[in-house]
Amino acid sequence: MQKSSLKKLLLLEDDLNLNETLTEFLEESGYAVTSVYSGSDAQDALYESPFDLLILDVNVPSPNGFELLQHARSEGVTTPAIYLTSRNGIEDLKEGYESGCDDYLRKPFEMQELRLRIDTLIQRNFFHNPSQKLQLCEHISYDTASDTLYHDEREIPLHAKEKRLLKLFLMHPDEQLTHEAISDHLWDYDEMPSDQSLRTYIKNLRKILGKDRIVSIKRYGYKFSTQ
Questions:
Q1: Burial level of 73, CB count in 10 A (0-12/13-18/19+)?
Q2: Which residues 6+ apart lie within 8 Å of 112 measured at CB?
Q3: Cα-based distances in Å from 29 to 32, 45, 51, 73, 82
Q4: CB–CB of 37/57 below 8 Å?
Q5: How far apart are CA 211 and CA 208, in angstroms?
Q6: Model pTM?
Q7: What is the structure's pLDDT at 62?
């Protein structure tokens, strides 16, 4: 039986010991973890690769967790996010949710509680959008609950990896995604990535959505354009 790709987490925590402890626990729990110690490093990581979930400490070197996520949301990043913080005030809680987080975990916390919250968010819809239907262009819509593409009310059949690729693009609108990041997302650990297959998936999606919606970036990757 083929094993699914590991879900990718970005962990921002400036406490060295806690960062190492969380990274070890999450990797043992079956996640692929990119750990960073500052807001600027987290911004770089977000630019370089797509993630399935963000775990963000609030009190970190500039930008702090609130500022980081607020900026990411303004740039179109829809990845679910959990804040880790020792702040207890209701105003802090309000600021956290208004900046775009999906969950809020106060320190100190149990590791199993963090894992439960991560699992819950990942099992939910990936899109930071209350609507289940995204209108991609005239007559073409995408149901985020079922990962299904429609022409009006008629389902458009897609290859499994075309579905995975489209979802990746929709999770990262107007972001430049590298060939490596796309391959990591599309192919499982025991599969051999294929540039030719990727070009075929891109070609098929362009036939449906329009050739200008998926932009080729020479020697880098692709971008899904919302313009």
A1: middle
A2: none
A3: 9, 22, 17, 28, 17
A4: no
A5: 8
A6: 0.58
A7: 84
**Parallel, antiparallel or unpaired: strands 133-137 and 140-143:** antiparallel
Q: Could you tell me the sign of the dihedral formed by the alpha carbons of 201, 203, 204, 209, in that order?
A: positive
| Residues ≥6 apart with Cβ < 8 Å to 47 | none
pLDDT recorded at residue 101? 84
* SS3 of the chain: helix, strand, coil, percent, to 5: 40, 20, 40
Tokens representing 64 are: 């702090």
> What does the alpha-carbon distance between residue 137 and residue 142 come to, in Å, rounded to a whole number?
10
User: Look-up: residue for tokens 């999770």?
Assistant: 171
Residue pair 61/92 in contact by the 8 Å Cβ criterion: no
Q: Please enumerate in sequence order all residues whose Cβ is within 8 A of that of 187, keeping only pairs 6 or more positions apart, or say none.
A: 5, 161, 193, 194
Question: Please, what's the largest Cα pairwise distance for the chain?
Answer: 53
The stretches of the chain forming alpha helices (DSSP H) are 16-28, 39-48, 65-74, 90-98, 111-123, 160-171, 179-186, 195-209
Average pLDDT along the chain, 227 residues, taken 10 residues at a time: 64 95 93 94 89 92 89 85 80 76 85 86 61 80 83 91 88 82 79 90 94 91 87
Quote the DSSP letter at residue 127.
-
Cα–Cα distance measured from residue 24 to residue 11, given in angstroms and rounded to the nearest whole number:
11
HSE-up of 19 (CA within 13 Å, CB side)? 15
| CA–CA separation, 37 and 95 (whole Å) | 22
Report how far residue 89's alpha carbon sits from residue 100's, in angstroms, rounded to the nearest whole number. 17
